[in-house]
Amino acid sequence: MLVGSQHLHALYDKIEIPPIKPIVTRVEQYGGHCPHCHEDYVSPVPAGLEQGTPFGNSVQTLATYFRETSAISYNRLSSMFKEIYPLDISEGGLANLFKQVKNRLDPQVEEILSRLRHSRIVSRSETSARINGKNECSFSISKSRCLFSYHSSKSWTKGN
To answer: Which domain holds residue 92?
Structure first.
């Protein structure tokens, strides 16, 4: 082969996702009894590592995203976390996780609903359905450049 006779034949990428492993942080919290003041004490833990759910913000965010955007069932979501991440979360664990996320988001949802209730609304739609023996409502509220969807077991028209 002569010098200078080579040319680029092909250029392409191959993409792989590295194995995903959960990061587990073990918290050991110590306490005791002071012999001088006779008070019990417990050492503080770092912010974000308080007792409660073992699942951190990244797990809560991902589970909520999949559940709310893709309507993935608890059973499938539990299987998905085990197969992909590998992280064992039971359906009950997911239910508790979603309750905590809901409680954290409730004040923001109320603020948004309050602003919408007191503003000029271009259109509003309420649709209801009976799900697992309960009446459920889904709201869509739109303003000039904003659409807000909200799901509740309470009807807005009944003043709840």
So the answer is: 54-108
